[in-house]
């Protein structure tokens, strides 16, 4: 499976990332403690809907001036033509102090959005927040005013962003909470299981909001939840 149907894409976009993680625990039990970021990311646009897209993986450095001229044409060609769309760029900052310089600001957010990319997930930094492309999500390790000597080192390999290991072409779900990798073959099962999880949770939440909620009513809610499987 290398692409998503429009229906499945919309189903995944309707979910928040914590619910996707909950569903993955059922569908892929081995993924309970891996495949997501384990340190916080700054979400620049929490009002945006979740990003569901295929990873374009990139590694950068910023502290020191590069010895050779970076291959911008090759890098942007990879972003534009390196796999299925929509895409999300997952960027590992390799500097000892990540975030020394920001690759992401007004220019790159607009360029990437124009090339079919819906956002960036990075342990590095971002800037130009008010002027970033409308509708382009940024999850970053920090905000930084300078780009320093930021340059792309390579692309298309395995990257690690705050504990989340990502390969080129991986399916990513991301929102204000963080990001998680969804195995492509499990994407439909994740969407299906998420519906059941939300239905079960709704029974308990609705009961808790009613006057006179107590342990007996909680037990009744639990019984109702058990019937959804």
Care to count the β-strands? 12
Distance between the termini: 26 Å
- Sheet having the most strands: 8 strands, mixed
Instruction: Just give the CATH class of the largest domain.
Output: Alpha Beta
Put simply, the count of helices is: 6
Give helix and strand order, one letter per element, not per position.
Answer: HHEEHEHEEEEEEEEEHH
CATH architecture tag of the largest domain: 3-Layer(bba) Sandwich
Task: Considering the chains and any ligands shown, give keywords for the structure.
229 residues; 2 domains; elongated; eight-stranded mixed beta sheet; alpha/beta; 6 helices
Describe the structure.
The chain is an alpha/beta fold and about 230 residues long. The chain folds into 2 domains: about 35-180, Glucose Oxidase, domain 1; about 190-225. It is about 30% helix and about 25% strand. It has 6 helices and 12 strands. The protein has helices spanning about 5-15, 15-25, 70-80, 105-115, 185-210, 215-225; strands at about 40-45, 50-60, 85-95, 115-120, 125, 135-140, 140-145, 150-155, 160, 165, 170-175, 180. Strands 1, 2, 3, 4, 6, 8, 11 and 12 form an 8-stranded mixed β-sheet that branches. Helix 2 packs across helix 5 and helix 5 (about 185-210) packs antiparallel against helix 6. The longest helix has 22 residues, at about 185-210. The protein is elongated. The mean pLDDT is about 95.
């Amino acid at each position: 499976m290398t692409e998503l149907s429009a229906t499945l894409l919309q189903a995944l976009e309707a979910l928040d990332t914590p619910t996707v993680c909950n569903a993955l625990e059922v569908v892929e039990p081995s993924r309970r403690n891996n495949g997501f970021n384990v340190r916080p990311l700054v979400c620049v646009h929490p009002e945006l809907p979740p990003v569901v897209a295929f990873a374009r993986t990139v590694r950068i450095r910023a502290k020191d001036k590069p010895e050779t001229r970076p291959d911008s044409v090759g890098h942007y060609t990879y972003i534009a033509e390196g796999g299925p769309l929509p895409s999300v760029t997952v960027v590992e900052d390799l500097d000892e102090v990540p975030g020394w310089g920001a690759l992401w600001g007004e220019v790159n957010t607009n360029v990437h959005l124009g090339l079919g990319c819906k956002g960036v997930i990075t342990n590095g930094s971002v800037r130009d927040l008010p002027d970033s492309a409308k509708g382009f999500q940024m999850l970053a390790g920090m905000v930084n005013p300078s780009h320093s000597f930021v340059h792309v080192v390579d692309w298309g390999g395995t990257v690690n962003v705050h504990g989340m290991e990502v390969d080129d072409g991986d399916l990513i779900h991301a929102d204000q909470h963080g990001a998680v990798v969804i195995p492509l073959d499990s994407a439909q099962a994740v969407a299906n299981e998420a519906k059941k999880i939300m239905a079960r949770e709704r029974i308990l939440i609705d009961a808790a909001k009613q006057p006179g909620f107590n342990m007996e009513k909680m037990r009744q809610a639990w019984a109702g939840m058990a019937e959804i499987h």
